Amino acid sequence: MVFSESMKLADLIDVNFKLLNVLSRLGISLGFGENTIREMCDRQGIDLNSFLLICNVYTYDGYVPSADLLAAADAGTIVDYLHNSHAFYLDRELAALESNLSLMVEPCDELQKKIVGKFFASYKAQVKRHFNYEESVVFPYVRALKTGECQEGYSIEQFEENHSNIDETLNDLKNIVMKYLPDTCDTVVRNEVLYRIYRLEEDLLKHTIIEDTVLIPVVNRMETL
User: Fold this and answer.
1) What are residue 148's phi and psi, to 5 degrees?
2) What CA–CA distance (Å, rounded) separates 154 from 159?
3) pLDDT tens track for 107-163
4) Is 200 left (phi over 0), alpha (psi -120 to 50) or beta?
């Protein structure tokens, strides 16, 4: 099932409740009644084709956007979504994960606390570097391209070639929590940490796929026009 403009927004959430994250990042609040996807996009001033692209990629593993849908997408909407996702990860998800980790390691010895803290600090720094590059270089480039400005010396191909993976350190942290901490750590708290890591890992993967399969092809097309 691929989402369409005539589908009710409430039915879209029933198909994949995780799309609540997508709605919030695009400024769509709950209480949308019986509105269809098109009606809500029109009301919120959100590009319909870009919204459908993001929802389909976010929901369906292996989804490949059609050339027509990519051609109709709005790079500005996609960049706004990715920018708001960065703020969500840094201000909410990583902050909550850090708080959960601190609570989890309270019964541990100092060495164990240091190891967990080091891994998390390393991962957070890596994520910030990754996002800072996109915020300071990639997104301004796309926005300038959208307004017809030409920025010589850079292309989306450079972003594609250097698009780093930020999952490896998170996976290491997950294994430490799952395999190597003592059983003095509260099981409920440890499970909550793992749930949060798995959710973050999945969300970041979808984020990367949207960049690779939507943003890059859309900007590639803009560069050739």
Assistant:
1) 95, 5
2) 9
3) 999 998 998 998 899 899 999 999 999 999 999 999 999 988 877 778 998 888 877
4) alpha
Note the pLDDT tens digit of each residue in 78-123. 999 999 999 999 999 999 999 999 999 999 999 989 989 988 998 9
Per-residue burial over 145-156, b = 16 or more CB atoms within 10 Å of its CB, e = otherwise: beeeeeeeeeeb
Q: What is the pTM of this model?
A: 0.92
CB atoms within 10 A of CB 34: 9
Print burial letters for 174-185: b (CB count within 10 Å at least 16), e (below 16): beebeeebeeeb
Beta-bridge partner residues of 36: 8
Is residue 41 classed as helix, strand or coil in its secondary structure?
A: helix
Phi-psi region of 174 (alpha: psi -120 to 50; beta: other; left: phi over 0): alpha
Q: Residue 87: in which H helix or E strand, if any?
A: helix 75-88
22, 81 Cβ separation under 8 angstroms: yes
